[in-house]
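About this split. The held-out portion is used to measure sequence recovery: a designer receives only the structure tokens and must propose an amino acid at every position. Recovery is the fraction of positions where the proposal matches the reference. Here is one held-out target exactly as it appears in the evaluation file.
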């Protein structure tokens, strides 16, 4: 009898541990997605500002282009995530109806609105970094240096956080994120400068 109770207790503990592991895994996935969204916002907005700055370097133009990139990117991310999660929601609802004969526990299903809001917020958090960095710097060359420094610091931080959440090698992951961000900014700057110099 005692051994039966011990076994039951062990089984309960194991089930609780599995639930905690699953819960942590889900949270880690959400956090990692948020980090990736913030990284997208950072790279695309900084690259856009640098690209526009390659042709017209006044602070108002660069800030306006960065703000437009933030709004457009956040809306795009939110709509894309909403459509994607809603598709998943419909599939899971249909599956649950087939399995349960009509009873659905909707609280267990993903929320398209929450996913859209989280995606837009994550993108905006990343995009605000170069905007804040450039906002109070009038001198063009100094402004470019400040944006580059802020972007570098943020990329390293996002790369480190993404590696920790994804249980990947920290140095390699951070280096990939950093080099990728620099490359995106350099290509955008170079191509825009080229097009701008030919009067297009």
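Reference sequence for scoring:
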């Amino acid at each position: 009898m005692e051994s039966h109770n011990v076994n039951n207790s062990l089984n309960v503990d194991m089930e609780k541990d599995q639930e905690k592991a699953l819960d942590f895994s889900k949270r880690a996935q959400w956090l990692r997605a948020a980090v990736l969204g913030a990284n997208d916002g950072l790279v695309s907005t900084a690259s856009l500002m640098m690209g526009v700055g390659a042709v017209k370097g006044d602070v108002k133009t660069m800030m306006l282009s960065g703000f437009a990139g933030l709004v457009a990117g956040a809306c795009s991310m939110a709509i894309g995530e909403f459509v994607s999660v809603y598709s998943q929601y419909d599939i899971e609802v249909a599956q649950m109806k087939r399995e349960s004969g009509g009873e659905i526990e909707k609280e267990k299903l993903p929320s398209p609105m929450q996913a859209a809001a989280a995606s837009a917020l994550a993108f905006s958090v990343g995009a605000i970094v170069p905007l804040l960095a450039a906002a109070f710097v009038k001198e063009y060359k100094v402004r470019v240096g400040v944006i580059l420094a802020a972007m570098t610091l943020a990329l390293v931080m996002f790369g480190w956080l993404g590696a920790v959440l994804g249980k990947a090698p920290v140095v390699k992951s951070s280096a990939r994120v950093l080099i990728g961000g620099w490359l995106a900014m350099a290509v955008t700057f170079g191509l825009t400068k080229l097009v701008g110099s030919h009067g297009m």
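Annotator remark: The first helix runs from residue 2 to 55.
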